[in-house]
Amino acid sequence: MLHTVAVRGYRSLREVVIPLAGLTVVTGANGTGKSSVYRSLRLLADCARNEVIGSLAREGGLESVLWAGPEGLGGARRTGSAQGTTRTRPVALELGFASDDFGYLIDLGLPQFAGPGSSFARDPEIKREVVFAGPRLRPSATLVSRGRDYAEAASESGRGFEEITRSLPAYRSVLAEYAHPGALPELAAVRDRLRGWRFYDGFRVDADAPARQPRIGTRTPVLSDDGADLAAAVQTIIEAGFDDLARAVADAFDDATVSVAVTDGLFELQLHQKGMLRPLRTAELSDGTLRFLLWGAALLSPAPPSLMVLNEPETSLHPDLVGPLAAMIRAAAANTQVVVVTHSAAMRKHLADDGSTEIELHKDWGETRITGQTNLSAPPWDWGKR
Q: What is the pTM of this model?
């Protein structure tokens, strides 16, 4: 289980170290940095697929996402005025996590030289990557270390490091390039964990939404991001013998049931309600009903990941559905670690009843901070140096 996520230099997250539990609720007013926490977790997952450079480019490039304030805000808080200061660290976006077994840190910086005549001179470079054992980065706990184009791994004898490569491109992650289970099992374990993380940021439910169309179905233990394979995912849950989804649907819609109709290989979800002479097809469902079923298929997967991150799942749902949705989130948290980003008081209350850990964010001089956290109460974390 992850117990720490750390971000430095990303948007309003000048430097934040977030403690995580089995079920963590990240909340706060609009504009306090909740979405930045969500996106930073996605960037971490992108590192395992060699997609982090492209993801930053789609956000406008590294210079667009970097913390825009001074390196430190101590002077601003003392004087009441923010002033530029002499930098003591390189310009960087740094991300990392620590778990029960391994941790990972990546340091992304401005490019030095992309090559003569290159059109990619604005692409950020991976300056540093570290895989370490235990709750924090220490030299003695380092397992794999990468500095620009050079990477090395701790030797099997435990004495020193052995070279992996001297020619690793600055836009390629050591996680994706050298994570071979036989040679570097720790690197492979971190890569596979990050690739397994799942992110859900709402679903389309308009008339042309993918979830409303009959689709060719195959066994689907993981719902796609757009929900196009909803019917196949629900049928997979049904055949796996899990009844959490059936209970949630009955609770939410007055003892309704779901089934999947299959015609010439085309799968289509159906909702059976009391008093109706026939089931309703997905094309006939209300937006809120379809969205609830999509969340159910996502949360109650027969193949739970190590981490699932949900961004404002209660959006556009009727208040009466928030309780049943929270029940599905709690059911998912029994099998996987869940992070819920929300500003819904009702969702927070329902999840608090089951012992979730709440992280409240607020803004102070433009910086996202965790309410009530001090230097003594923050999880241990060490960024190291380039």
A: 0.92
